[in-house]
């Protein structure tokens, strides 16, 4: 297997040097974490499924004009992506009360929100990924006002599209987290969607039963975690070749 230099390793993915300048290889792991890395585990086959699910959703978003870092899927666990400068602020798009929002405001989980709400979180595991305001983001130079405008507009567009897509397969998009990066082409910069879109960073509930089909099954010890990810892939019409088996990552060069 080709030896590649590892650029970065996160909780669920590894980034390797890409085959061409300005590209990276994104490898999806089976590792799972929750509560700011306090809970850890392995969800067998998760990396294979998330690779296929994210490929499908990123491709669909690209077709409607949403700029992303995704180029193409390489194999069961890897995809080729453009190298971007990640903005250290994630956006949480909320359509239904769940998770920390339900706890913070004492709203019963499952309550539809009056309108979609977008929250900003500073990407720092050491600090617990705190929620921040636009004032924090711009004052500390994490993103410019125009960057935030672009991220907000893209988030709302992505939310509209994904809501309809998931509704069509019997799933409610409760909330989801997005990451963005700066893509430099010659002297021009544009904001693009980065990271992934999968049951790892989306809350997806069955419309009829409210069964959770996402990482909350791992967070809350609900069991049948692998089956939940498989069900999302099945409804999207995604079937990994050979099934969600395990494959080894590329050899690493430090």
Task: Provide keyphrases for this structure.
254 residues, alpha+beta, Phosphorylase Kinase, domain 1, 2 domains, 7-stranded antiparallel β-sheet, 6 helices, 15 strands, disordered C terminus
Average pLDDT, to the nearest integer? Answer: 92
Number of discrete domains: 2
CATH superfamily of the largest domain: ATP-grasp fold, B domain
CATH topology label of the largest domain: D-amino Acid Aminotransferase, Chain A, domain 1
The structural class is alpha+beta
- What is the count of helical runs? 6
Q: Could you estimate the helical fraction of the residues in percent?
A: 25-40%
Beginning-to-end CA distance, first to last residue: 16 Å
Outline the structure in words:
The protein is α+β, with helices and mostly antiparallel strands. Helices cover 27% and strands 34% of the residues. The protein has helices at 46-63, 99-105, 134-139, 145-167, 216-219, 225-235; strands spanning 4-9, 13-17, 23-28, 31-34, 39-42, 70-73, 78-82, 85-86, 89-96, 112-122, 131-132, 171-185, 188-194, 202-206, 252-253. A hairpin with a 2-residue loop joins β12 (171-185) and β13 (188-194).
């Amino acid at each position: 297997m080709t030896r590649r230099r590892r650029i970065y390793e996160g909780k669920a993915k590894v980034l390797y040097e890409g085959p061409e300048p300005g590209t990276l290889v994104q490898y999806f792991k089976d590792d799972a974490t929750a509560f700011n890395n306090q809970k850890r585990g392995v969800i067998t086959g998760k990396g294979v499924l998330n690779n296929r699910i994210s490929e499908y959703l990123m491709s669909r978003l690209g077709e409607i004009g949403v700029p992303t870092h995704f180029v193409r899927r390489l194999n069961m666990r890897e995809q080729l992506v453009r190298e971007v400068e990640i903005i250290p602020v994630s956006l949480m798009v909320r359509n239904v009360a769940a998770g920390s929002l339900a706890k913070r405001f004492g709203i019963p989980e499952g309550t539809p929100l009056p309108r979609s709400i977008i929250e900003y979180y500073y990407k720092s595991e050491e600090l617990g990924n705190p929620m921040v305001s636009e004032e924090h983001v711009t004052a500390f130079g994490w993103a410019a006002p125009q960057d935030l405008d672009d991220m907000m507009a893209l988030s709302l567009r992505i939310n509209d599209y994904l809501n309809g897509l998931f509704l069509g397969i019997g799933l409610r998009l409760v909330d989801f987290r997005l990451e963005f990066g700066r893509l430099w082409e010659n002297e021009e910069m544009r904001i693009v969607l980065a990271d992934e879109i999968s049951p790892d960073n989306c809350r997806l509930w069955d419309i009829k039963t409210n069964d959770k089909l996402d990482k909350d099954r791992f967070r809350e010890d609900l069991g049948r975690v692998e089956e939940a990810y498989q069900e999302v892939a099945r409804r999207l019409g995604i079937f990994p070749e050979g099934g969600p088996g395990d494959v080894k990552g590329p050899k690493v060069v430090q």
